[in-house]
Amino acid sequence: MSREDFKASLEALQQDLWAVKQDDDAYLLKTIIEGYEQAFEGKTVSIPEPEKVLTEAVEAPVEANTNQSFIDALNGDLSREYQAAIQYIQHASVMEGAEFISIMEELMAHADEEIAHAKKISDRIDYLGGVPVATMEQAKISPDAIEMLEQDKASEEEAITRYKERIEQAESMKDYGSKNMLMDILEEEEEHRNDLIIALGKKSTPVNEEEEPDLMKGGLADDKKVDDFNPAQIEMGKKVESEHTEDEDIATEITKDHLTEDPKYYDKLKEIEDK
After folding, report:
1. Better pLDDT: 273 or 213
2. The domain containing residue 232 runs over which residues?
3. Are the C-beta atoms of residues 152 and 87 closer than 8 Å to each other?
4. pLDDT at 155
5. pLDDT tens-digit profile of 127-142?
6. Rounded-to-integer distance, Cα 25 and Cα 128, Å
7. Are 62 and 128 in contact (CB under 8 A)?
8. Where are the alpha helices (DSSP H) in the chain?
């Protein structure tokens, strides 16, 4: 699909949303289209006045003692969600080759989820008394499909770090509504990162017949062995990650990456799932 066809399909979807009066989704898609124009067509985006993008919904209550720096941080997350959606859509649109078809479909699914994240964060900012931004970070592009996947993986790893920080902020403020929303988003971002690790593994090729590539090169736990981690956590992790891949080695490497971030990652994950 060419960029022109892709943009036309977005604009057609926006018109459909206006027609059925799904104004919130239509305005969000308008922001995505403008971000696309800014990133790939060099256009200057005019940000609408906040009152023009509000619907007739009942005004939500504002929580007391809201930390303005937290709202600002959420707006930073929102602009990066716009970026992530655009980046995934652009990458999926320009990738070529039959071997990338399933990956392109996965990237479009990721884009849909990033847009859903943006909607959740935007609604939460409004609930907390802030104004959601309508600007985005610069999307990363490349003519090389593998580099695109590396760019997406790096973006997901950055998002995971940010959302862990944001969850701690919400916890310190006793803002459990924001915390629960952010934990849901974090879980999906980690799934995206895992999908990209698997995709990069599938697309790695040997340098020669004698030398096999390290499919997990670039992971957080490259210099660590399984014995460096708690055995119980390793077993729990391999069981969880095996739900996402049939390759036991990849499941083990993803497990090591998570435990490098947090030695009790899978205990905490189980606590969340048990709630």
Report:
1. 273
2. 219-269
3. yes
4. 95
5. 999 999 999 888 999 9
6. 20
7. yes
8. 3-19, 23-40, 68-94, 101-127, 145-172, 176-203, 231-241, 248-261, 265-274
As for how many domains the chain has, the answer is 2
Q: Residues 173, 67: contact at Cβ < 8 Å?
A: yes
Residue spans of alpha helices (H) in 95-175: 101-127, 145-172
pLDDT of 42 higher than 70: no
User: What pTM does this model have?
Assistant: 0.58
- Give Cβ neighbours of residue 202 (< 8 Å, ≥ 6 apart): none
Q: Which phi and psi (to 5°) does residue 221 adopt? A: -110, 30
The CATH number of the domain where 175 resides is what? 1.20.1260.10
| 203, 237, 254 - which closes a domain | 203
Match 């990721």 to its residue by tokens.
110
| Residue whose token pair is 């939460």 | 124
Q: Distance between CA atoms of 186 and 188, rounded to whole angstroms?
A: 5
205 pLDDT band (50/70/90 cuts)? very low
Q: Are 234 and 259 in contact (CB under 8 A)?
A: yes
Instruction: Give CA 165 to chain center in angstroms.
Output: 15
